[in-house]
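Researcher: Next entry in the queue.
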Amino acid sequence: MIKLKALLLISIITSMSVQADISPKKKLPPCKDTPNCVSSQAFDKLHYIPPFKISGDAMRAWREFRNVVKTHNRIVITHETESSLHAEATSLVLSFVDDIDAFLDAETGVIHIRSASRLGHSDFGVNRKRIEAFRLQLRKMHVLA
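Model: Structure for this entry, 145 residues:
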């Protein structure tokens, strides 16, 4: 009887978790309290950076974004799916690594983005400048509003 109850409980938990995963809302990792991170999903002024507002075809904008990331020096995409990516940017002088996370939200017409230093406190605005450089390149390609 105890085994039957345990199996029933496991079955209920398993079915609940499957249902919860059917349409997950994508979230970027939160920024720490240090100023060396920017995120389009941050709620505070220090860390917030606007998402990339897509103009036109969302899949084209996502392809161009991935190409922009790939062509930057010292940035390597370490994981990607059809609508998300993780990349690592290594600084020239001291080889510090920054993490870049992004995902396409085609439903709302934006690319959410985060760039954060792994170590230290201040980044002298490097992460914000990197994201704005991506934005500028994508605007020149006419895929962002």
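Model: Confidence is low (pLDDT under 50) at residues 4-24.
Researcher: Noted, moving on.
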